[in-house]
Write a structure and sequence with these properties.
Blueprint: H1 16-28, H2 36-41, H3 45-59, H4 66-79
Length: 84
């Protein structure tokens, strides 16, 4: 059960900025619904917008190849004993 309400971009009364950013993230990631973490952060639309901007630079707009990025993720997971 979520402790924070997950923002639905299509719900009546959703903040326009939150709805816009959630739809943008959903489309860019090839999904039909936004990931829950974005839905939770969307309770503070300005924070969501900045988080997406930061994540885009860190994960996509950098000089690493997709294979290098995956190697970095796997190395961090193994180092931190993550099995997710």
């Amino acid at each position: 059960m979520a402790r924070l309400t997950l923002v639905d971009p299509d719900a009546e009364g959703t903040d326009p900025l939150a709805a816009k950013v959630l739809r943008q993230v959903t489309g860019l990631r090839g999904r039909t619904v936004p990931p829950n973490v974005y839905g939770a952060v969307a309770n503070h639309p300005a924070a969501l917008q900045k988080m997406v901007e930061f994540g885009t630079v860190v994960y996509f707009d950098n000089s690493m190849t997709p294979a290098q990025r995956e190697l970095a993720y796997l190395t961090a997971s193994a180092t931190n004993d993550c099995h997710y």
